[in-house]
Write a structure and sequence with these properties.
Blueprint lengths: L3 E14 L2 E14 L3 E5 L6 H9 L7 E10 L2 E2 L5 H7 L4 E4 L3 H4 L6 H16 L7 H14 L5 H4 L9 H13 L5 E5 L7 H18 L2 E6 L2 H7 L2 E6 L2 E7 H6 L4 H8 L50 E4 L2 E3 L5
Helix pairs in contact: 4-5, 7-8
Length: 329
């Protein structure tokens, strides 16, 4: 029997800007179970990264507000935590890999210094730092450099972030995220800036290491092909809401929401690789300060009927494990 590590229920996040008030998330429900990889996909600006920042307690205050909902981690609502309490959770119980590692790594400190800090904090919070000297910490740092596949790790830990390639920096970020052996890891488009060959290597590495430390993962991406390689379940997001959720095989073999179908149709298929044109999703993503009434996808939907602009459909389970927010699947 699986137990939930993270339960996001009815979560809404709004931002106050000079252009007006807009809803980044609108009544989101997401559950991630033990040792499960949940893929979260959608177009840029749909709210994927906002969800991750909300879980980490890193929303830009005071501009971001959470008018409703809960984020339950191991039975406790993170939204009720103080900043000091969240500092005890971040980096140990919950870790995060950001999209661009060069902006996440401190340019003034060596890779070894930054990774050793993670390991020392983990030991201090666990109360197990007795008997650990600088030599043992360094050995653990070198060990993690080896585990993420960096050549000559003894030399690598003495180098600075700018001396590494993008793929190497991302491996360092993975080591920093997993060295604390977190219960939950959030990966925000960790392969989007990498070439295809490096993407495959990083995905295999993440999948292997996550399995070893038995962490649960929220893997965020705009690329369905990437998510297909790593996720157990997939949630599809559009304009701040979850429109479909199912196992990765079900999403690809039996997509039911028109938006999911449109996303999959816009990817090239082997049998149609000689076609001159790919299918496209007509229209554009709505401005979040003026989300259309009813289903937010209805202005772009080929199955749109009059009722679709009246009320927003609820996310409902139509078969075991398969949920959809559409009245006309």
């Amino acid at each position: 029997m699986t137990h939930p590590v993270l339960e996001v229920h009815d979560l809404s996040v709004v931002f106050e800007t000079f252009e007006g008030r807009y809803s980044a998330l609108n009544s989101i429900d997401v559950t991630i179970n033990e040792s499960e990889v949940m893929g979260l996909v959608g177009e840029s600006g749909c709210g994927k990264s906002t969800l991750a920042l909300a879980v980490m307690g890193l929303l830009p205050r005071p501009h971001a507000k959470v008018p409703s909902g809960s984020i339950t981690f191991r039975g406790k609502n993170l939204l009720s935590y103080t900043e000091k309490e969240m500092e005890q959770v971040r980096g140990t119980d919950i870790s995060m890999i950001f999209q661009e590692p060069l902006t996440s790594l401190d340019p003034l400190f060596t890779i070894g210094d930054q990774l050793s800090e993670t390991i020392q904090i983990k030991l201090q919070r666990a109360g197990g730092n007795a008997g650990w000297n600088s030599g043992k910490v360094k050995a653990e740092v070198v060990n993690w450099m080896k585990r993420v596949g960096l050549a000559d790790p003894e030399s690598a830990i003495e180098r600075y972030p700018h001396e590494f390639s993008g793929g190497m920096r991302q491996r360092v970020m993975i080591a920093m995220a997993l060295a604390a052996e977190p219960q939950l890891m959030l990966a925000d488009e960790p392969t989007s800036a990498l070439d295809v060959t490096t993407q495959v290597q990083i995905l295999r590495l993440v999948k292997s290491l996550v399995s070893q430390v038995r962490a649960s993962v929220l893997f965020i991406s705009h690329d369905l092909a990437v998510v297909a390689q790593i996720a157990d379940r997939v949630a599809v997001m559009y304009a701040g809401i979850i429109v479909e959720e199912a196992s990765v095989n079900e999403i690809f073999e039996n997509p039911l929401h028109p938006y999911t179908q449109a996303l999959l149709s816009s990817f090239p298929k082997e049998k149609s690789i000689k076609k001159s044109r790919l299918e496209i999703i007509r229209g554009s993503v709505p401005n979040l300060t003026h989300i259309p009434p009813g289903c937010p996808f209805h202005p772009r939907c080929q199955l749109m009927k009059e009722g679709c602009s009246m009320a927003r459909p609820e996310l409902r389970e139509i078969s075991p494990g398969h949920k959809i927010a559409c009245d006309r699947p």
